[in-house]
Amino acid sequence: MPVDDPVLRAASPLQRGWRSAALVIFLLASADLVFACSYWHYAYALPPARLVQNIAAGLLGKRAFAGGADTVLLGLLLQYAMMSAMVGAYYLLSRRLAALRAHPWRYGSLYGVLLYIVMNEIVLPLSAAPKTPYILSWIISSIVMHWVIGVVTAHAARWAYQD
Known about the structure:
By secondary structure, the protein is mostly helical. 80% of the residues lie in helices and 0% in strands.
């Protein structure tokens, strides 16, 4: 599908890639936050600020929950930084591996599952965040959300680097 916007058409594929990635990072990180805040608030009456402080707890441990607005801001910054790494990695790889752009459903799905595994089996266990209980509905919901992140990222990379 060709790019219809004359401004984007005039941009180089690399410029289009950066612009697209920035938008996708913002949208996916925001959607992920809304998803997680909604889930935990609905299921356990957890305030959104407390959930965002839990992200900051990855660096600060339990001290994050006593940090007020500062640790909420840190949690938000970390959320967007992590999404930047997730989206950025796929975009960079897709520039070199045409198959990632040619088959966004296949590779986006695999990437989403990989993101879930990396976050839950490597990043979280190595972080200072308190361990969360095993909640099947959260695990399933989180896998679905990571799948969405992977597929949206793959489709956006395909669009960004098309000629």
